[in-house]
Every structure is written in structure tokens, then in C-alpha cells.
Amino acid sequence: MKLIRTEDAAGQVLCHDITQIIPGEFKGARFRKGHIIQPEDIPVLLSIGKENLYVWEKKPGILHEDEAAALLYKAAAGKNIHGTEPKEGKIELIADCDGLLKINREALLAVNRTPQMMIATIHGDLPVKKGQKLAGTRIIPLVIEQEKMDAMQAAAGSEPILNVLPMQAKKFAVITTGSEVFKGRIEDKFTPILVGKLAEYGCEMTFHKVCDDDPAGITAAILEAKAAGCELIFTTGGMSVDPDDRTPLAIRNTGADIISYGAPVLTCLHAALPDVFYDVHLMISDPARYAADFAKAGADLITFHLEAVPDTVEEVIAAIRATGCQVGISIRPGTPVEAVFPYLGVVDLILVMSVEPGFGGQKLIPECLNKVAAIRKMITDRGLAIDLEVDGGIHLDNVVQALEKGANVIVAGSAVFKDDIAANAKAFLNRMQ
Under DSSP, is residue 383 helix (H, G, I), strand (E, B) or coil? Predict the structure, then answer.
């Protein structure tokens, strides 16, 4: 830095804060370190007694923080993103439209490993609104070497790190399946939820049909919706556990592929939290087919439903064992407890469902806890080392009851994943001690 006359300082960069005190009105930094002095600033500086100033002395190969921030912004900002003016080495990235935020995580991490700079972002793969702050760039020192910025640009690559992809409004159909809805025994509550959620993205339902549990009828409805110009087609109803779930067959008969999404999600979780024990509960009709995929994704224990494979339980156990994972068997509320007794010696966990599988937020069926007690007695009488798990309707007011009946593994969804998740989890742990 160098000392110059204030009257000659226009265009120069301050090397330190300049404090101003106006009794009874203001006390603080009137000009911040890094501020580029403007002609109109000079009378103000002189009025507070600054006849001379220490300013940054530009040298070859050295960049001011705002110059460097502009380079960092250029590497970060892609489609439908603009930045604020540089200030103290910082630029904020703002969304130009509603859309989906995509982040090149590898490039982001590479840039953030470069010394003396950083890009902080919100989570990617989530919807954002026009005007929303997406990220902030920061150059930490007042000046930084050009070679560090060159290293940053090499780490970032040739493509921008952040992009906002505009939402595309679609026409969609909902095919509601299930005899209970078709025959008017229960109200269709799924369709209004889908309509509301998709409306947030500008999508419109242009086709809706309620079908019985008839694969041919469901297939015909799907094809009719497609012919009507629907760009998205949703089906609601049984999709997994029961052998009599007809919707997957109906979808397959349209020529579409049935794709399982669980394993890729587990892969991402395992990469982020590799030391966690992953207890994977498969509510699907063909668990043996997907066991290897989930094991490769990071599962430690795979639980399947007895009701889904009543004639091939031993084969499914063997298939899961072959992956190196532990094995669990689950039973639904309507299944007699005796159905699991033959397998107590060959599995690692028994899961008692205390609600009917399908959706969260249900109330625990008290009679299911009697099954827990019966299974625990059988485990104890036979001297086995098996975990006993309860899933469904578990809250702080009934978790102790489940433990007293013999469960030693508790699954809680809705009671934990709402409001303050950390506080809810802590409350459960305290109650279970």
C-alpha cells in the first residue's frame, strides 16, 4: 500500500476502514476497506480529517478483491442467473426466473478447494423463484494473486457451475385406481393433492378417470389419456406390496418400463453419510430382483414383506444373503403373527407393521403391539439374537409402550420429520432411554 493525498485519491482503493463520528447521529465505518474512492467521496473524507489516505498499490499479477470476485462470478453463473454489483469481494447470484436449480457439485467442490475464495450455494435440484438468492461468491483477502484465479478457472471447467432451468407447464392426467375408490367406499384424496402440487408449477389436469382393479381397464385409461395429448400421466393406487396390486401390470401393458427409484437415492445418501447403518425396507412385489441393486447402493440390512412372496420366502432370504446384507422380514397388521415363526432362526430382524402400508401419518393399530410381545417371547424362549422392529404410527406418547412390548428398533416418520426435526429426534432418544 502507499500513502497519497486525499485530493488525488479518486479511483484508488482504500486499504482500511474509514470511521466517521457524528455526535448523536452516527458512529461507524463511513467507507469500508476495498472501497473504490469516487470524486464525490473526497469532500466527505476531507470533512472528517483525512488529508491523506493509504490506498492499494496495483502490481502486475495481483488483483483487487472485486476484480477477482467478477472472475469467480463468471465461473459460477450460468443460464437465467444474474449477479449483484461486486462489493468487498462478494457477488450474490440471483434467479432470473422460476425454475429448477442445477449445480455441478464436482466443479463447486473443486473451486472451493482453491485457497482464499469460496462459493456458497443453497441446495441444488430444488425449485427456485424469480429473484431468489441462489449463491454468494467471496474473495477473502483484499488482494489475490492472478495465478490463484487461473487455478480456480481450471478447476471450474468450461461450463458454468450453476444454472436455472425454467419450469415447463404440462398438461397431465390422473388415473385413480382401486376398487375402494371406484365403488365409492372411500373418497379419492390423492387427486386433489396432485392437482394442487402441480399447479405450483403451472401444470393443468386435463384428464381424470377412476378405474377398478382391472389391468385392462387401467391400461386403456392410460392410453386414452396419452391420445388426448397429456404430457404427464399419474396413476394412484396399489403399486408394490400386495400380490393383487394390478397397476404395475397395467402400466407395463402400455409399453412403458417400470423403473425403481430407491437404489439411486440410497447411493446418494451413502456417499454423503458412509458410516450410517442403512436399514432398507422394500415394499415391492419382487424383492429378490432388486436386492443386489440395493446392496451395491449401500444397504446393510434389507427387509421384505412376507405377504409379497408367500411361496418363495426362503429363496428371497437366500438372494439377500448372497449380497452380503443382513435380512429382515416384515408382516402387515392383518397377517397372523405365527407366519414369521418359521423364519426366526434364519433372519436378523422381524418388522411388525403397526399401520397398513401406503402413506404416512396414520394412527398406530394397538393390537399390533400384541404381535410384538408374542414375537419377543418366542425370540427369548429360543435364545435367539434377533432385532424386533415396529413401524407405523409411532409417537412420543406410545413409543415406550412399543419398547415395553419387546421392540428394540423403532421407526418414526411423521412424528420426527415435521417442524424442528432435530428437536423431535432428541425427544425420541430421551424417551427411549
Answer: coil
Pick the closest to residue 238 from 281, 316, 195, 179 (CA basis): 179
Q: How far apart are CA 251 and CA 220, in angstroms?
A: 10
Residue 97 cell numbers, joined? 426466473
Q: Cell numbers 394412484 correspond to what residue?
A: 236
DSSP letter at 339 equals G
Q: What is the DSSP string of 188-220?
A: --HHHHHHHHHHTTT-EEEEEEEE-S-HHHHHH
Contact between 325 and 315 under an 8 Å Cβ cutoff? The reply is: no
Strand partners, 161: none
The neighbouring-strand residues paired with 36 are 13
Q: Of 431, 401, 433, which Cα lies nearest the Cα of 416?
A: 431
Give 45-57 pLDDT, tens digit per residue.
999 899 999 887 7
Task: Spell out the residues 6+ positions from residue 295 whose beta carbon is closer than 8 angstroms to its own.
Answer: 302, 320, 323, 324, 325
Q: Which residues contact 269 (CB under 8 A, 6 or more apart)?
A: 276, 278, 298
CA distance 351 to 307: 13
How far apart CA 271 and CA 323 sit, in angstroms, is 19
Among 72, 56, 159, 75, which residue's Cα sits nearest to residue 115? Answer: 72
What is the phi/psi pair of residue 214, to 5°? -130, 110
Note the pLDDT of residue 270.
Answer: 92
**CB burial readout 106-139, b (16+ within 10 A) else e:** ebbebbeebebbbbebeebeeebeeeeebbbbbb
Tens of pLDDT along 348-385?
A: 999 999 998 766 678 899 999 999 999 999 999 999 99
* Partners of 87 in the β-ladder: 90
